[in-house]
Write a structure and sequence with these properties.
Layout: E1 2-8, H1 17-24, H2 32-50, E2 57-63, E3 69-71, E4 77-86, E5 92-94, H3 97-100, E6 101-104, E7 111-114, E8 131-137, H4 147-162, H5 178-184
Antiparallel strand pairs: 1-2, 2-8, 3-7, 4-5, 4-8, 6-7
Amino acid sequence: MHKTVLVNGPSGEPIEVSEAKTHLNLSGSSLDTYLGTLITTARRAIENYLHRVLMTQDWKVFYDCWKHELLIPFGNLQTVTSVKYRDLNGVEQTLSADDYYWVVNTTDPGRIVRKYDATYPELQYGRPDAIEIEFTAGFGDAEDVPEEIKHAIKLLVTDYFEHKGSVVVGSTVNIIPGHVKNLIHSYKLYEF
């Protein structure tokens, strides 16, 4: 069982308002703020569907107990900043990577793997979220996000712009339309 907490969100969005305006064939600046909101909403919807973050973001993930491998959510693991835990007395301690674990970022999702001869310290009994892992994940900057995902964001922005409500009479209700899912499905993580 794990939970995640955002520490620092992305510094921008995978597409600019100007790109959305070009895609929608709009001119002028009266809708720029609204389009910015739609872009953010579309990015978050795609991140939720893919179970990964698109642009560089800092997160914390919490676990209740040690395992041989602790999966790091959201794919494209860049770095693990720290692994902290609550000892038997409830005091926060930092686990040494040199002595206890390896960070594996060559798999997707990344993971922390216990070293062969290491024994993790005992955790405070009964404490939920006794382990806290701070990490950075994402493809990188806007130019690093795959083009299929950027195009999917544009398609979702168009859908949100043209259908202001969540239900269109005569249509099947779907948060992300099938043609958008098909475009980005190969990037989906299934372990989370």
